[in-house]
Amino acid sequence: MFAYFIRRLLINIPILIGITIIIFLLASMMPGDAVLAMISSETPVSDEMIKMRQGELGLDLPLHIQYLRWIGNLAKGNLGFSFVSAESVSKMIVMRIPATLELMGVSLLISILLGLTLGTISAFKQYSVLDYSFTIFGFIGISIPDFFLGMILVFIFALKLKLFPTSGFITAGEEFSLADNLRHVFLPALALALVRTAVFMRYTRASILEVLGNDYVRTARAKGLKQKIIVLRHVMRNALIPVITIIGINLGVLFAGSVIIETIFQWPGIGMMFINAVTARDSPVIMGYVLLTSIIVLASNLLTDLTYSLVDPRIRYE
Amino acid sequence: MAATIARLEKIRPESLWSKAWKRFLRHKLALFGLSVLGILIFSALAASLLTPYSPIKQDLRNLRKAPTAEHWLGTDGVGRDILTRVLYAGRISLSVGLVSVSLSGAIGILIGVAAGYLGGKTDMILMRLTDMVMTFPSLVIIITVAAALGPSVYNAMLVIGLLTWPSIARLVRSQFLSLRTQQFVTAARSIGVSNWDIAFKHIFPNTISAITVAITFGMATSILMEASLSFLGLGVPPPTPSWGNMLRDAQSMNVLEGMPWIWLPPGIMIALSVLSINFIGDGLRDALDPRSLL
Q1: CB-based contact B278 A143, cutoff 8 Å
Q2: Which of B145, B260, B274 has the CB atom closest to A155's CB atom?
Q3: How far is CA B25 from the centre of its chain?
Q4: Are B252 and B64 in contact (CB under 8 A)?
Q5: Interface of chain B against chain A, CB under 8 Å?
Q6: Which of B75, B59, B47, B56 is nearest to B261 (CA)?
Q7: How far is B196 from chain A (nearest CA, A)?
């Protein structure tokens, strides 16, 4: 088990190095750079001044040197400084990450509760009207772009019914209060949750149906066990294992998938920071964000594998 | 005599494909999807015949008009007919989906075949590469690459195609791994068939049904990604309409609250086309499942 863990961890190192190289190349491909981005068209700036400023930021060095400088700084935990605001990128991320985590957490909670419940009902009432309606709901869930769903939710619940605020983290000009904040997080979290609700529902349904077909369930029935005990002890315990994997894999996806929703709802998380950085061609911030999300995807896949092997004793590693 | 021959011809065994087609026709959701997608494709292609308006020309006397008899879905911020734009946008959005999924299918198949057929070191290296691309949070990377390349229809196709192939590569590889130990492969090898022919003429045809299903779902994903990119202003650049960039108008609260005719139609078109393709994919999966064909 321990050896497996170590091996799994080591496999990720070359992948991570490859990712840093690609991220770096991408950022250096961006048209224009920080210096050009800062120049406004109204004040004339001489080419020499541009060159000088580019030199200060190290933008005139050969690419591989710039890459090594970046990696060297990374190793020290320094993600560089924003070209636009001169803030430290790591500080920017640390400041904004709680908002993203809150949005993710609430959204994940909604989709797990809804997805597992609907999936379970669907499986035990297979081929019923309810099952078919949930199936179609699931298809709709994976087909609507989350930002369009977000607009519909804002239109109905914020603009027409006035139940929730349209955007933001808290009501502007007011002291922070949890109730107010939760009212703000609800709509974006719901918009993000629909896709995953559909996915979790489909997996729960399929997984329960598979377990229901097993011999040991028939044996349990033949023994005359109560339905409730069969469901809880024999079916659900086994059926939820694959569902855990899916939830784990979705953690990483969710983390990176909130960029557009954060932008629409003006949610001050790292997703909005990333989109703003893309607009401003602020490559240190872009690189920091992409690196962070890639690491989180890697880590959540790794964690998922490990949890999986802990819950399911049938899985063995040589 | 002639009657006997006619009867004998009738009981000729059905081909696998015609059986699959029959199963597909029994899938109600898939049929619904096929019809809706058919209508969407037709109306996109025939857009210039269906509406008298131009998707690009501005009409400053008719700004943000609510639906009327002349403009069935109203007009946008510079007076362009929404219905016209939605139809023309279908051309762009559907072809970005089609081209990028073809690109990702081609890359995925080549890498999957190479890894699964050649095995060994090639497999190891190709699979690490696949893992790496898979680890990238795809939307984030697509946004970054699109920003680096600049917004254009072709860049959108390229970026989406270049980042969505890993799932197809993995699928093809796993199929090849199980198929290459089969007897028909050994037989082909023993009579001296070349590696290329074994891979593409003997093994590959057996993987087509699985690839078809994967590519269908991939097309749905590609359309969603194009919509996201264009919505962020990194995909199809204006004034060319795409469903995603038409939704950009709804970023203004005035439009979102008071003029739903501007943003509802393109959003509904995205959802409808993706939903139809997903239904078709589901139908194909049921119809092409080798276990159900026996």
Answers
A1: yes
A2: B260
A3: 20
A4: no
A5: 29, 128-129, 131-132, 135-141, 143-145, 147-150, 220, 224, 227-228, 231-232, 234, 247, 250-251, 253, 256-257, 260, 263, 267, 270-271, 274-275, 278-279, 282
A6: B75
A7: 30
In total, chain B counts a number of residues equal to: 294
CA B189 to each of CA A53, A272, A305, B172, B182: distance values in angstroms, whole numbers, following the listed order: 65, 56, 38, 20, 11
- What is the distance between the alpha carbons of residues B206 and B203, in angstroms, rounded to a whole number? 6
pLDDT digits (tens, 9 = 90+) for B4-60: 666 666 666 677 778 888 888 888 899 999 999 999 999 999 888 888 888 888 877
| Contact yes or no for B85/B241 (Cβ under 8 A) | yes
Residue from the list A31, A142, A294 with its beta carbon closest to the beta carbon of B135:
A294
Provide the mean pLDDT of chain A.
85
Which tens digit of pLDDT belongs to each residue from B194-227? 989 999 999 998 898 889 999 999 999 999 999 9
Burial per residue of A101-121, b for 16 or more beta-carbon CB atoms within 10 angstroms, e otherwise: ebbbebbbebbbebbbebbbb
Helix (H) / strand (E) element for B120: namely: helix B120-135
DSSP conformation letters of chain A: -HHHHHHHHHHHHHHHHHHHHHHHHHHHHSSS-HHHHH--SSS---HHHHHHHHHHTTTTS-HHHHHHHHHHHHHTT---B-TTT--BHHHHHHHHHHHHHHHHHHHHHHHHHHHHHHHHHHHHTTTSHHHHHHHHHHHHHHHS-HHHHHHHHIIIIIIIS--S-SS-SS-TTS---HHHHHHHHHHHHHHHHHHHHHHHHHHHHHHHHHHHTSHHHHHHHHTT--HHHIIIIIIIHHHHHHHHHHHHHHHHHHHHHTHHHHHHTT--SHHHHHHHHHHHT-HHHHHHHHHHHHHHHHHHHHHHHHHHHHH-TT----
DSSP for B203-229, written as a single string: IGGGGHHHHHHHHHHHHHHHHHHHHHH
Q: So what's the pLDDT on residue A169?
A: 86
Question: Residue A21's closest chain B neighbor by CA?
Answer: B132
Q: Cα–Cα distance between B267 and B273 in angstroms, integer? A: 10
- In angstroms, the CA B131 to CA B117 distance is 18
Q: How far apart are CA A32 and CA A29, in angstroms?
A: 9
| Dist CA B212 CA B200 (whole Å) | 16
Query: pTM for this one?
Result: 0.88
Dig out the tokens for A312 from the structure: 């399911």
ipTM rounded to 2 decimals: 0.87
| Nearest residue, CB atoms, B145 vs list A26, A148, A281 | A26
Closest CA of chain B from A19, distance in Å: 7
> What tokens were used for A18?
């490859």
What is the reported pLDDT for B145?
A: 84
B240: three-class secondary structure by DSSP: coil
Mean pLDDT to the nearest integer, A192-211 = 92
Listing DSSP states for A20-79 in one string gives HHHHHHHHHHSSS-HHHHH--SSS---HHHHHHHHHHTTTTS-HHHHHHHHHHHHHTT--
What does pLDDT average to over chain B?
Answer: 87
Is the pLDDT reported for residue B166 higher than 80? yes
Collapsing DSSP to helix, strand or coil, B55 comes out as coil
Handedness of CA A13, A19, A24, A25 (dihedral sign): positive
Interface touch B271/A297, C-beta < 8 Å = no
